[in-house]
Design goal:
By secondary structure, this protein is an alpha/beta fold. The protein is built from 6 helices and 6 strands, in the order βαβαβαβααβαβ. The longest helix is centred in the middle third of the chain and has 20 residues. Bound molecules: adenosine-5'-triphosphate and magnesium ion.
Length: 171
Amino acid sequence: MKGYIQVYTGNGKGKTTAALGLAFRAAGAGLRVFIGQFIKMGDYSEIKALARFSDLITVKQFGQGRFIKGKPSLEDMSSAASGLKEIQERLLAGEFDVVIVEEGNVAVSAGLFSEKELLDLMDRKPPQVEMIITGRGALPSVIEKADLVTEMKEIKHYYHQGVVARVGIEK
Ligand code: ATP
Ligand code: MG
């Protein structure tokens, strides 16, 4: 089966959950999924849920678990660099049918790796692998190279009413 490159971006809710939904569906079909999460680290509920599918879905987190304000720290940079390298290896090794680059767009805008590095990763995708890149602020070059782009458009979000991320719903 030919694989495509999908991008889920925009300011509205649903980018990460769409990618997780796809992982769930793929696993149901016996496809092997690799999820590499940038920025994040820690106890997200999806990590616990995905542990139940560990025969088909592998998740790795490459973040430091804190917000990056301004210039990323050396630690932020080095864990993102090793994450990118690992995703590249996993992509090329042929062990996975679906590879999800979670918050890949945000990693670029935060300066964790370059636009060119993300575009190179997209170029290296083997034909049969499906690649999903999530995160707000997808660059025009990334949109151009992708085969499918969905923008989650925020019509309303309770975030603006001061509702922070809730366990089981946002994290
Ligand atoms: P989900 O994981 O629910 O599918 P998402 O992946 O589309 O959401 P992200 O962009 O990854 O959303 O947002 C992560 C968190 O940022 C949200 O859980 C929310 O608490 C917070 N957030 C939501 N809207 C905004 C906003 N407009 N500005 C800043 N932070 C926001
Ligand atoms: Mg997200």
